[in-house]
Amino acid sequence: MTLLKTEEGKEIVSRVTLKKVKLNIGHDLAGMFAEFYLDGKKMGYFSDDGYGGGTEIVYNDPALQTIFEEFLKENNVAQIMFDNGWDFLKDASKIDLHTQAEEVINEALNAIQLEKANKKLIKHCLSNICIGNDENSSYRMIGFKSKQTFKEIAATPQGRGHIEALYFKYKSALEKGEKILNTNLEELGIKL
Q: How many domains does the chain contain in total?
């Protein structure tokens, strides 16, 4: 992820939406297909067959290709990519428009996947201590055998004590770079 590392890049990616997304296609399930839109207007489709080689970006009309490429140029996508990991090319001008478009579309997919992962994390935090890091979206969960949420458990002083004990037990055993991802504990009266 290069564009999603910067606020400017996030703004660019937010203007691109994907529809009819199909993942895990092709060889080793590494491919993807999606229709892509700029500011709500359909531009065309993106296809990675998953068999190696280049990706295919097909615009519905040459005028739409011009609009999308102007969007890339006006927003200095090549420079943002160069400043965030693409400097191995030695010059931002070596990042062609197809590569820039591919990066923006892939980052739009990454943004969708991050949003889904965050929703899942919020759900898991309702009844688990979730431990992870800022580097990726994977995490581990520690909870009680009961099906109750932390809100239900914290309804009694004894329940709050159990959650606090669980929290401090795992907080003291965090590995380097790990942190507790829950943001819902203090609002339940848990003393951290």
A: 2
Same structural domain, 102 and 135: no
Range of the domain at 161: 129-188
Sign of the torsion formed by the C-alpha atoms of 124, 129, 134 and 136: negative
Non-local (6+) Cβ contacts of 39 within 8 A are: 15
For 9, the 3-state DSSP assignment is: helix
Last residue of a domain, one of 96, 117, 138: 117
pLDDT 10s digits, 22-67: 988 877 777 889 999 999 999 999 998 888 888 999 999 999 999 9
Distance, in Å, from the CA atom of 65 to the CA atom of 175, rounded to the nearest integer, reads 48
Write the pLDDT tens digit of every residue in 94-132: 999 999 999 999 999 989 988 898 899 999 999 999 999
